[in-house]
Give the backbone structure.
Amino acid sequence: MANTWLRARQTKYAAYAATYILVVIAICVVANLLGNRYNKSYDATANKRYSLSEQTAKIVKGLKQDATITYFNAGTKFPEGKDLLEEYKNLSPKVKVEYVDPDKNPQLAREAGIRSLGTAVVQIGSKKEEAKSMTEEGITGAFIRDLKSTTRTVCFASGSGEHQISESEREGFSRLKDALTSDNYETQGVDLVQKAEVPGNCTVLVVGGPTRNYEQPQVDGIKKYVEGGGRAFFMLSPPLKVGRFQIAKNDALTSLLQGWGVTAGKELILDLNPIGQMVGLGPEVALVSSYTSQPIVNDIKRTATGFPLSRPLEIKNTDKTTVEKLFDSSETSVATTNLNSARVDVNDPKNKKGPLTLAAAGTYSTGKEGTQGRFVVVGSGDWADNQYINFNGNADLALNAVNWLSSDEDLISIRPKAPEDRRVTMTQRQFNVVLITAQFVLPLIVIIGGVGVWWKRR
């Protein structure tokens, strides 16, 4: 009878084990089937490093015709590009991904002009564009070039102390140039002093923080350009004079903007928000975290931006222009007229209380059907230079403004984020504590725990 009971018990355990094994196998099969059919993933990184950006999603989901991404690489290296390319495929049923081994299909590689392995070519309709890199920026850039039929050139004014795209120092615009290139814009400098005329190939003219006065011929050239349907981006700091550092009043240029409905004040905005001080910014940098619903700022509403040495603006519509506010300084900001001293009294009763308008966008009615001038004015000349453009959303704001000015509203979004530097910096003492804990303390705890369990069971 004991043997019968033992055999029954063993049979019962065997049945349980077999059932558990079958359940586990069934779960694995179902999980694999679902995984092959539905490609879903979750990006837990802080800046969504492994997810496609809103900009890419907007472009790919908005495709009106089929697109094919052809990836040329050795067959054994297809997995190097597969994860990224499959993300594009999952965004829209109009996207198809093909993998080609140039050694097995050399004719197709020659027709595509492939010179190196690991290259992707995006084809939309009859247009083909090679991705400049196997990154989201490179592949999305190829989509943009396929969809755009004309060359877009951003011209940077020079001759009056403006920031220059050729300068890589703190006050240069070289990083802004790189960002525009990533959005597939061409860039060039325009000397309005030598010739007071905006070239016809300029899609957008940037007046980037002039420190000297614009003469009337320069202003007349800009006026003719915008009122004829051109697009201009003005970044203007207040007229400061502290020691040898001086910014001219630029009355002729500000008078032009006033005629379009944007009055640039001559005060300096100081932001007394303690959050700015916590991140290492002084009161001369105005922080912004609240925006209007204008297309330029729609997609950066969850992002802060910073504007050093800024001035307030006043806006109104005119008979030819329609002007919209983009954002204000914070409620803790003030505007002071004391611009000739490095020490400013934030409690001066003459100071204007915030919030104060910092940026505006406007359109000019040319009277011609299908032709409209556009302009954006930001009351700071330094916020997009190499020193500040990487501050939170500054780069996105600059690119969004150019996109809107060039009528590329489909590009307005948050760009792909660069990898964050998340290294942990420790002092030598902290490093020694971690080292001793990892090499001695934790193993000792495990050993003591093991000995204790052995002694108890013994």
Observations:
- The first strand starts at residue 67 and ends at 72.
